[in-house]
Amino acid sequence: MTNRNEPFSPSGSSDSPHPQSSHSADLGQITLRSPAELADALPYLLGFYPTDSVVMIALHGERGRFGGRLRLGIPTTPQDWPAICDQLAECLIAGSRQRGHQITGVVLFLCQDPARDESGQQVMERLRPLAQRLRLACGALEAPIYEALCISEDTFWSYCCPDQRCCPPQGTPLVLPGTSAMAAAAAYAGIQVRGSLRQMEDRLAPLSAPRAPEQEQALDEAATALVPKMLGDADRATVRGKTLNVAGQVLERFKKAEPVTGCSAADDRDDHLLQHDEAAEIILGIQDRATRDRAAEWMEGPEAAPALRLWRALARRCVGAYADHAAAPLTLAGWVAWSLGDEPEARVALSRALHADPDYVFARLLHQACNEGIDPEPLRRCLREAQAGRSADSAVLSAVREELRRLAGKDNKTRRPTGDTPTTGERTVQRKPVPQPPRARDARAVRESGTRSGGDGAPPAHHAAGTQGTQSPSTDGVPTVPQQRRRIRCLQPGKGSRPATRRGAGETRGPAGKPRARRRSGPRDVNGRD
C-alpha cells in the first residue's frame, strides 16, 4: 500500500463500539468518532461518491489507520454473493499482508440508490445478507469488520451499531456536503470530489439516439475504406499518418474552443466540434498499436487537457457493433487523466476499457500501475523513449516491473507473508468478463507488420492489479480480416484464470464473523473480480 493513494492517514481506537479514525494531512489530524462521520468521509477517501458499490477500507495498527481501499459494483445475483465475498475479503486482506501491513479491521460501505417503488430502508434490508456474508468472510481471515454502513437516498444505516440513539431504524440523513470538518480538511488539502461514480461513467458512455445510428454508419463506411489498407504493407504507414493528422486537427479545434461551465455542457460542446467521419477515422486508426502509441504522447503540456477531452469524445462515439473499439480511446483517456494527476477518473476510464476488452494489454498495465501507486513519470519517460522503436506496451511493461521491484525492495525491509495479489491504495476490482457474442469473438485485427501478440513483451502472468487474474498464452499470428462491422484492434493474449480456493464446509466461525481457533495450512490464492 502506498502513501500516494492515501490522501489522509486515519487512525482510531478499538476501545469504542465504532472505530475512531483520524486523518493526518499537513493540517494535523481529524478524528472520525461515529458512523455519521465515517459515511461523510467516504467520498473524500475515494475522490468521488460511489454508486451501486461495495467499498471496503482496511484499518492498520492499534489506532486503526486507514489503508487500502477496494471497490466493486454490487453483484445483482444474490447467489453469487458468497463466492464474491470470499474473494473480496482475500483480495483486500491478503494483498495488504503481502505488503507487510497487518490489517486489524475493516470498514464496509454498501452504496446503492433505491430502484423504482423501493425505499432506502428496503435497500438496506435487501443488502443485509451481503453485509453479513462479508463480515463472515473478513472475520474468517482474522480481520473483523468494525463498522458496516448502507448508504442510500442520502441516508445511512449501520449494520453493526445497536444503539438507536445514533443509528435509528429509519436511518440517519447524511450531513450537507461541504459542512463537515472532513470537508473543510479536504478543501484545505486541495482534495476534490469529482461527483458521483455514475456521473463519471456517463461521460464515457456511448451516445444514444438520434446520433448513434449516424455514427455507426460512419464507422461502417470508414471500416470498408480503411481495413484493407491497414492490413496491407503498402498503405499502412499512410493510414497511420492520416489518422494522426486528423486527430491533430481536432485537437487544435478543441484547444481553441470557448470554455463552458459544467461537465455536461463541456461534453456537448466537444461532441459538436467532432464530426462523425472524423471520429470514425480516428477510432479505427488508433486500433493500430503503433498509431495508438504515437497518440499516447499527448500526455503532458498544453496538449494533455484537450487530448483528454478528445479521448472522452471518441469513447462516446464507439456505438452499436463498435462498442468494443472503445478500449483504445478509454485507455488513452485513463492514461492522460492519470498523467495529469486525476487518479479517480483514470481508474474509471481504465476499468471501462477492461470491461470493453478484458485482454487489452495497455489498459491492464496502466490499471496495475495506477492501483500500485506507481508515479506516472517513469512511464512517461518510457513512452518518450518508445519513439525510438519500442511499443508503448513494452515500454510501460518495463517501467511497471522496474517500479514494482523498487517498491518490493522497500517493502522487504519489513517481514511480510507471501501472497499472490498486490495491495493497492484503492483497488477497482474487475468482474469476470461476460462471454462475447460471435461478432466480438471473431473481430481480431490490425497490428504492425510482422508482429506477433507476444513480440513486444508479454504482460505479467497475473492480471492488472485488481482485475481477474489471467494467463498470457501466445497466439499464432493475425487472423483473417474482419468484415465491415467487426472490431479492429491489436491482438492481445488470451485469458485463463485460477479459481479462488474455498474453505472447507466444516469450518466453524464465531459470532459476527470472528473465527474460532483453527489451524491454517498457508496462504490461499486470490483472484479479484469487478
- The residue-averaged pLDDT reads 75
Given the helix and strand composition, which structural class is it?
A: alpha+beta
**Text of the CATH class of the domain at 200-373:** Mainly Alpha
Q: Please give the oligomerization state of what you see.
A: single chain
Unreliable residue stretches: 1-27, 413-530
Helicity, in percent? 40-55%
Following the backbone from N to C, one meets helices and strands in this order, namely: EEHEEHEHEEEHHHHHHHHHHHHHEH
Total helices: the number is 17
The N- to C-terminal Cα distance equals 20 Å
Largest sheet: 7 strands, mixed
CATH architecture grouping of the domain at 200-373: Alpha Horseshoe
Cross-sheet strand order for the largest sheet: 8-7-6-5-3-4-9
Strand coverage percent: 5-15%
Care to describe what's here?
This protein is of the alpha+beta class. Among the domains are: 35-193, Cytidine Deaminase, domain 2; 200-373, Serine Threonine Protein Phosphatase 5, Tetratricopeptide repeat (Alpha Horseshoe). The chain contains 17 helices and nine strands. It has helices at 35-46, 81-98, 120-140, 181-189, 197-202, 211-231, 236-256, 263-273, 276-285, 289-295, 304-316, 327-339, 343-356, 361-371, 376-385, 392-411, 438-442; strands at residues 21-25, 28-32, 53-60, 65-73, 103-111, 145-152, 155-158, 172-173, 426-428. The strands form two sheets. A seven-stranded mixed sheet has the order 8-7-6-5-3-4-9, sandwiched between helices. A two-stranded antiparallel ribbon has the order 1-2. Strand 1 and strand 2 form a beta hairpin. Helix 7 crosses helix 9, helix 11 (304-316) packs antiparallel against helix 12 (327-339) and helix 12 packs parallel to helix 14 (361-371). It is globular and about 70 Å long. 50% of the residues are buried. Mean pLDDT is 75; it is low at 1-27 and 413-530.
